[in-house]
Amino acid sequence: MFSGHCGRAVMLAVLLSGTATTARAEYTEFRGKPISQGRMVVAEADAERIGLTQDPATPSQQRSSDFVLKGTKVDAEISSVLARVRVEQTFQNPFSDRIEAVYVFPLPENAAVDGYFFKVGEKVIRGVVKERQQARKEYEQAKSEGRKASLLEQERANIFTQSLANIPPGAEVTVHIEYVHPVDIDGSSYVFRFPMVVGPRYIPGQPLGRPSVGRGWAPDTDEVPDASRVTPAPLPPGKRSGNDVAIQLTIEGAMPIRDIVPVTHEVDVKKVTPTRSVVRLKEKKVLADKDFVIEYRLAGDQVVVASLAHRSQEKGTFAVVIQPQHGVNAEDATPREYLLLLDRSGSMSGRAISQLRILAQHLLDGLNPQDTFRVATFNNGVRSHRRQPILATPENIADAKAFIRGIRANGGTEINGALHEIVAPREGEVGRPRYLVLVTDALVGNDDSILATLKTPRFADVRVFPVAMGSAPNDYLIRRAAELGRGFSLRTTNEDNPAEIAQRFSRKIAKPVMTDLEIEWGGLAVEEVLPSPLPDLYADRPLVVMGRYAKPGKAEISIKGNLMGEMAATSLSLELPEQEAANDALEPLWARQRIRQIWNRQLGHESADAKKTITRLGIEYQLVTKYTSFIAVERDDEPVLAGQPRQYLVAPMLPEGMTALASGAFATAANANGPARKASPRAPAAGAGSASHVATSQPAPVFSNSSSSGSTSRGGGPIDIVCLGAAGALAFGCSRLRRREEDEEG
Amino acid sequence: MSAEYPSRATEWQGSGGASGIAFHLAPWTTLLAVATLVVHFQPIVTESVGAPALLEYERAAVVSGQWWRLATGHLLHWSFGHLLLDLSAVVIIGGVLERMVRERYPTLLLGIAGTIGVSLCVFQPDVLVYRGLSGVASGLFAALLVMGLRRLKRFDEWGAMLMIVALFFLTKIGYEGLTGELFLATGTVGDIGDPVTLAHVSGALAGAVFASVIALPIGESPQRIDQRAVS
Description:
The complex is a heterodimer of chains A (746) and B (231).
Chain A: H1 4-24, H2 44-49, E1 69-79, E2 82-92, E3 99-106, E4 112-120, E5 123-126, E6 128-131, H3 132-145, E7 149-156, E8 159-167, E9 172-182, E10 184-186, E11 189-194, E12 239-240, E13 244-252, E14 257-262, E15 267-273, E16 276-281, E17 286-287, E18 292-298, E19 307-310, E20 316-322, E21 337-343, H4 351-365, E22 372-378, E23 382-384, E24 390-391, H5 394-405, H6 415-422, E25 434-440, H7 447-454, E26 462-468, H8 475-484, E27 490-491, H9 498-510, E28 514-520, E29 526-530, E30 543-549, E31 553-563, E32 566-576, H10 586-602, H11 608-620, E33 628-633, E34 646-650, H12 660-672, E35 698-699, E36 713-715, H13 721-745
Parallel strand pairs in A: 1-13, 3-34, 21-22, 21-25, 25-26, 26-27
Antiparallel strand pairs in A: 1-2, 2-9, 3-8, 4-5, 4-9, 6-33, 7-8, 7-33, 10-11, 11-18, 12-35, 13-16, 13-17, 14-18, 15-16, 19-20, 20-30, 22-23, 22-24, 28-31, 29-30, 31-32
Helix pairs in contact in A: 1-13, 4-5, 4-9, 7-8, 10-11
Chain B: H1 17-25, H2 27-46, H3 50-55, E1 57-58, H4 59-63, H5 69-72, H6 80-101, H7 105-123, E2 129-131, H8 134-151, H9 157-179, H10 197-214, H11 222-230
Antiparallel strand pairs in B: 1-2
């Protein structure tokens, strides 16, 4: 039996052990706040293993002035349905040596990047598009000669690498990138989006027996041969980069503008005229940790059917926006089979998984009783609610909701396996249309492999509706999956109400689809019309059709399609002018659309012909593509120094709301699947004998609490280890008191 | 169920191994632990969601008349880590407390669990689904603290320790009640959304009140309660 002194010693030990646990700080704090639920932490050992820590060899980089990427300035103009965006990235060299800055960053996946130059002082060095290998060669040569040079390469349709060589000590260089893209139209809303961060991606596959081609944390693998180029090591959680973002957006509407809705950031809106407004971020400098999304509507409550044209050369380019005029009140009550596939990988941890749970439950509420459904979740493996689709009875739905509420986020993102699992070959009934709703942030490196899967015969009778989650989802995979799967995609930001998004989705999906779409051009000599073939047309999802013409003219064009077994038609007037200087963005957009189509066709079997055509289009229209890059070299000045500069990799922030579990999960999942998936523990490798740097970081001075506030599925919070110690102390003390009392009485 | 508690002289003479002894000493605590584990692992083992669907605190179901969920919702947890921490606290405190209040323990337990459920339903309607024993653990903590303080006849080293623990607990509950944030959170249990500190606060209040008013009627000494329970 313990003596009194011994008991007290035990008690003190128990109490102090809790304190010690706190003070020992085995874990990293998250965003400067005490660790609690929804703010997952990562052990420092793990953080080091997955490359989240700073390079201990460069302590001087702790200074905030040491940030190489000083800021990003965005100036966007929207006219009609086209947005022209000018991005200015400012790099500064705070070191005493020349450096090469390498920055992996996102752009919209449908952007046609057609303008590029860099500026040193007042001097402007313009870029030209060349074949990728050639551009890289010229860049490397300029770099070794000590000339200032910049290179813009495309890794994915939405991921680009900016390399900037020989920034002199103390100098500032600004890189200007210009692109155009059509704005998204959702019902009566126009949506503008500017992505700011490349989220950490899950890399499947086995390592290749060669050095990696890039400097990212993941090695190249057989499934993602360029993994190291799309996995920039992120800053540790709670740390911010020096990249302050300023955005200005000018909206020029065909009708008076109303209802400008800031979705993700607070903005100031200045109404210049009824049809022109200027939107600026309320904070002059925001963090580059999530997409900027803004919605607006025009008077009239519906999208103005637009036709645009441009002609300055032999061939002109046009675009028509086809707004479905059907089925506004109709509902297609055909019983359907819904396959709900939910991402529970580590990158979904934090706010995204809470949003997913709510969204998925409300999606089930949108089912009709005669529909069947099946729910499955995936990370490294697949977990199904039921092995076969079941009827959407209230009992089954309640049961499935309980299953959904139990979803926790961890592990990898094996989408391919999950797709094969849930879209099993049919047994029995075959007439029921199959709708696959894929809810995910799509943060993977094997985008094209997944898209190729969707093109296989197994998915021929499945319509795919991806729903993007999180603050910085992979837009490329989301949109292309919808395109190849003949569905449409939706986006849920961390600021959205997922219940509303689910209801909106259910309303849209209940509307009939116009299939077998055809356009009769009324005698106009149009050619190279895109997309080809025309996709199905969903209610509230206008379609932008583009094409070329050699001969001007004006005619009434007619759009026909099959709507629930009946022929439906709508018409609009299209004028193809002899000369039109306006809308010059149409040409690069058409070329980009053509490249997109070729790329989609060659998915799964990359062909030399496709590469050749894409390269030709890229050079002809001066566009950055997978096979063409912008290169700019300062050739006027005599190079002052030879030899390789120190390389500096700009580290992105973790996307807002993503906890460290996400990045930890990537590493964990990797470890579980062999060395290929193991997150690289290395600091980015040295370049040609000179030291490289891991990007610097500093505690965030201002950070919004973006954890799971608003989540409706919650817990009291686990008993803390300190409280557990106190509980032990209390229990022991009370037990001792009781015994002493009994001893005294006895 | 009628629990037969052993006297101190015979309390280690239970049979049936560790589980038998545990049941012998603190049957309700043992049952609670077993039930919590069963409910947690049932969906994993059977690949169905029977227990969560039936027992989870789901506000809509509660409002529609499924009152049991107010109490049974605490048995479910978001992850094994969540369960492990919560259940450890309940077992540590509950084991001792049950030995003190004996057959009144289930009443105390139900009172705390029910109060938390009702509090969530009334004061925090935005919480549609709730899981976890931490609120109950807070309630049991408060109840044991009350019991311990009432047994304290003189301010000695044990008294000092109880005071320290009481101060810590009051600070924790006060902080959580005022800020809505967890007082301390040095463990990591995975994603379970924002904590509902109301569960801790209401649980603690319920524990203190039930321990004072129900389990220990005013005017009756702890010794008499124990003696009456034994007899």
